[in-house]
Specification:
Elements (H helix, E strand, L loop, with lengths): L3 H19 L2 E9 L2 E2 L4 E4 L4 E4 L5 E6 L4 E6 L2 E7 L2 H6 L1 E5 L21 H11 L23 E2 L3 H39 L1 H7 L7 H7 L5 H6 L3 H20 L1
Parallel strand pairs: 1-8
Antiparallel strand pairs: 1-2, 1-5, 3-4, 3-6, 6-7, 7-9
Length: about 250
């Protein structure tokens, strides 16, 4: 029995070590190209199928664990794949450099021509004398970007790029909806006052005209802005009526 206990202890330590190795953490990072910070770059964790996009200042956050594969892609940049190692997990920070896509065609040379002065003949001679584009010029097979300083970069397949694009589209839609909601909440106090009319506040609630806006802000502790944006006007009015006496007692007397 005494011999079995150390073995069980070692097995439990090894098992806990595996669990720690697989534990996901929140990685922070920044994406740039030639020292220019890059917004709207798609980041996909291929292992967890979670994705995000970089912010206006090139920053991003994504959950990752050891051996996860992160994909970074943008329309004008070579796609980059990074296999997360223990050093990255320890550092909890990534600085990604993307290489811009610049495709160059083979050089062509224009030579002198004997021109006859007849447009359709001269243009045909020039067209026939130009060299054809070489196979090398249209070979885009080497589009992937491999960092020569590291062996943990990979190039994703086409279906992964489609998945990245879908996640980016979803994220942009979510951001647009979030921004729209923020705008509605900012405009809600003014819209609420306009919809009810000053006479309701002054005559029926006893709130002086100069105190209408402060009174609405006072009632925000009851989440009337959220209710108003959701279209629940009757609940908003009910809260205003219940809070008017408290406001008058605390702020006016």
């Amino acid at each position: 029995m005494k011999r079995i206990l150390p073995v069980l202890l070692l097995l439990s330590l090894a098992f806990s070590g595996d669990l720690l190795a697989q534990e996901r953490i929140m990685l922070k990072g920044v994406i740039q190209s030639d020292s220019v910070l890059l917004p709207d770059i798609h980041i996909l964790n291929l292992s967890s199928r979670q994705g995000t996009i970089s912010s206006f200042d090139g920053e991003f956050r994504i959950s990752a664990a050891v051996n996860d594969t992160l994909i970074f892609s943008g329309i004008q940049f070579h796609t980059l794949g990074l296999i997360v190692d223990e050093e990255i997990i320890e550092r909890k920070y990534l600085k990604i450099e993307l290489r811009p896509k610049i495709e160059e065609l083979s050089e062509i040379e224009l030579k002198g021509h004997d021109l006859d002065g007849l447009f359709y003949i001269d243009t045909k001679r020039m067209r026939d004398s130009l060299p054809l584009v070489t196979d090398e010029a249209v070979d885009f097979s080497n589009q992937g970007y491999d960092d020569p300083t590291s062996g943990n970069y990979v190039v994703p397949s086409a279906n992964i790029l489609n998945l990245v694009s879908m996640i980016g589209k979803k994220k942009r839609k979510e951001n647009a909806e979030k921004n729209n909601l923020i705008q509605q909440k900012r405009q809600a106090p003014a819209n609420l006052r306009k919809e009810l009319g000053d006479d309701v506040f002054v005559s029926q609630m006893g709130i002086p005209k100069t105190h209408i806006e402060p009174f609405i802000r006072y009632c925000q502790k009851k989440k009337i802005i959220d209710l108003y944006v959701e279209g629940r006007l009757m609940e908003v009015i009910d809260i205003l009526i219940k809070e008017k006496d408290n406001y008058i007692r605390e702020r006016l007397n």
